[in-house]
Structure formats: C-alpha cells, structure tokens
Design a protein that fits this description.
- This protein has 347 residues and is of the alpha/beta class.
- It has two domains: 228 residues, Zn peptidases (Aminopeptidase, 3-Layer(aba) Sandwich), CATH 3.40.630.10; 95 residues, Peptidase M42, domain 2 (Elongation Factor Tu (Ef-tu), domain 3, Beta Barrel).
- The chain has seven helices and 18 strands.
- The strands form three sheets. Strands 1, 2, 3, 12, 13, 14, 15, 16 and 17 form a nine-stranded mixed beta sheet that branches. A six-stranded antiparallel beta sheet has the order 5-4-9-6-7-8.
C-alpha cells in the first residue's frame, strides 16, 4: 500500500534546511534547526561528540534496534591561505570537481562568528583579459574567492578576522518548478533528511510506532567517508538514505527511489536489500535497483569500521550529483514511502 505523504510538509522541511550552511564538519548552524524540527514532532534530539544529531524512537518491539542515516554535511570549501592581492585560496571539503563552482556566491564563516560573502572565480576570470580564460583547467590551484569587501592585500583580509581553515559554504540555489522538478545543490543529502522528517510526521499523525527501536542519525562527515564509522550500541541494521545516480547502465530516474545493490567497493547485505525490494513492491513504489560506481554511503563506512550489522542504501535519484543537482518531487515521495514501509515492517 502507498502511504499518505504530505508533500507540502516534505518540501517545507527541505526548504527549511537547504539554506542553512552545513559543509563537512560545520554543524553549529544546522543542528539547532534540526532540534527545533524534532521538537515540533514531539521528539528530543541528542548529539554525540562529533556533532551527529540523533532522534531515538521506541518501537513496538525494542529487542531490535535499527538505524536510519541521512547525512547532514554538504560539499564545501575551507580557506587554504590568502594571496598577496587579497583573494582566498581554498581546499575542497568532500569529493567532486570544482568546475560547477565558478560564478557561485559563497559565505566565509570565521572562527569568531563573523560572516563575509564572496564569489568563486577562476584566476583567469575574463575572456576579455586572459588568453586562457576558456581553456585553463578549473581546480583547487586555479580558483579563488573574491571577497565582497574593499580588500587588496593579505593584511586587509586578515584584519577582517579570516583565518586559514575557516569554513566556506556555497549558495544552494534552490528552485522548484511547476512540473515538480527540484533544482538545488545539496539534494545530497538534505532531500533525504526531509524524507526522514516527513516519515516522522506520518508516524506521529497516524499514532504509529516503528516496529523496532529506531535511531535516526544525521552525521556531518559522510562526504569525507567517515560519517558512519561510529554506530550507537545495539544497532543491528543500518539504512543509509542517500541519493541515487542517473546515467548509462543505470535504471534509476528522478521520479523513482533507487535501491543500491552495490557501491564502489562491495554489495550491500543481500537479505536486507531483498527485503527493501519486496517492501518497495508492497508500497507500490516506483523503484529501481542499481549498481553504483564511484559511490559510497555511511552504511558502507559503518561496515568498513567493523560494526556487526546489516547495511543497505536507497534514495531519490539525481542528475548532476555533487553539482547543481536535479530531482523530482515524486522521487522524494517514493523514497519516503519506502522508508515508512521499512519502519513499519515486522521483519
């Protein structure tokens, strides 16, 4: 059966968190928002020493504990150093290239709480000036942050309180079209967080408990491959709700939920993946089963860290992963349907 998804609430959750900066390791702004959203649904949020946020719910049967992981960190940048002419040189937080960053607005978050805006540019930034403006490779050594401040030297920048290692967040540029398409950075993985909160709303409004004791987790280091290395005691199954991919040899699409059978390193647990496929069929989800290349999740990180658990992964498929991504609201709805089906499953 399909569950009654409140699409308005689902999208409101997404919009509420998408503009809150949370590049890898930067949890100070988003965690209070997540805690407020949890409280509105009657849940108390807790945090571990790495900043990971948790919501723990008693199940109909507390003899088994399962975990749902939807990572809260996004791609971003840090200040590497300041050039002699007052521009910021950067290092990436997380994978992917920098080609899609050129021309983006950013915010520099200083250690003392100040914020400054800037623009990502290439050092050969104009075809009117530089012969190689169109051909120069865009990478960490050729892009710069042009601060929206009257600065011309390194000393000018340092006087603002900007230090090496300061976090830099990138404007998400969220858009929703009349046809239901969602365009934004960080659908990976704030789209999945929205699905989790819509599932929590459904349980509350239907006065339902999940079948098992359930821990929702929102870690901040998935994009650097160790968000799932710590697992709370007693967890025997871990589901990573994360993006699916679209491309050659892949069956997923923006309107479906993609179940990942294997990622870059290994297959996910056979029994748990089989169960998810059966649940997707029962919930009448539009779904696909795919094998992903150059891809991993917090569920995989947990297995690599040696935890004794079953791991699986599913989520809405996107175009242009790790760039300005696009999916469809139907993909979010199908992901939420499968998540609710799993939470209520008696197996």
């Amino acid at each position: 059966m399909k569950y009654s998804i409140n699409t308005k609430h689902l999208l409101n959750c997404f919009e509420r968190i998408i503009n809150v900066p949370s590049p890898v390791g930067y949890y100070k702004e988003l965690n209070p928002v997540l805690a407020e959203m949890a409280e509105e649904l009657g849940h108390k949020m807790t945090f571990d020493h790495k900043g990971t946020a948790y919501i723990t719910i008693d199940g109909a049967d507390n003899s088994k504990t399962v975990q749902i992981a939807a990572h809260a960190d996004t791609l971003g940048l840090v200040v590497r150093t300041v050039s002699s002419d007052g521009m910021l040189l950067v290092r990436r937080l997380g994978g992917g290239g920098v080609v899609s960053l050129e021309g983006e607005n950013v915010i520099i978050h200083t250690r003392k709480g100040r914020k400054y805006t800037g623009l990502v540019i290439c050092k050969s930034h104009s075809t009117h000036v530089f012969d190689d403006a169109s051909t120069l490779e865009r990478n960490e050594n050729t892009i710069r942050i042009l601060l929206d401040e009257d600065v011309h030297t390194e000393a000018d920048v340092r006087a603002l309180g900007i230090l090496n290692g300061d976090f830099i967040s990138i404007e998400p540029r969220f858009r929703q079209t009349e046809k239901g398409y969602i365009k934004s950075r960080y659908i990976d993985d704030k789209g999945a967080i929205a699905c989790c909160f819509e599932a929590l709303r459904y349980l509350k409004e239907q006065n339902l408990r999940p079948q098992n004791r359930t821990i929702f987790s929102f870690p901040y280091y998935e994009e650097v491959s160790f968000g799932g290395t710590y697992i709370p005691e007693g967890v025997s199954e871990l589901i990573a709700v994360d993006i699916g991919l679209i491309g050659p040899e892949l069956e997923g699409n923006e309107r479906s939920v993609s179940i990942c059978a294997k990622d870059a390193s290994a297959p996910y647990d056979q029994e748990l993946t089989d169960r998810l496929i059966a649940l997707a069929e029962e919930a009448e989800c539009d779904f696909a089963v795919d094998v992903f290349y150059r891809y991993g999740t917090d569920a995989r990180a947990a297995v690599r860290a040696g935890h004794n658990l079953k791991a699986a992964a599913f989520g809405m498929a996107v175009y242009c992963s790790h760039g300005l991504e696009r999916t469809h609201v139907k993909g979010l709805e199908n992901t939420t349907n499968l998540l609710i089906s799993y939470l209520l499953s008696e197996k």
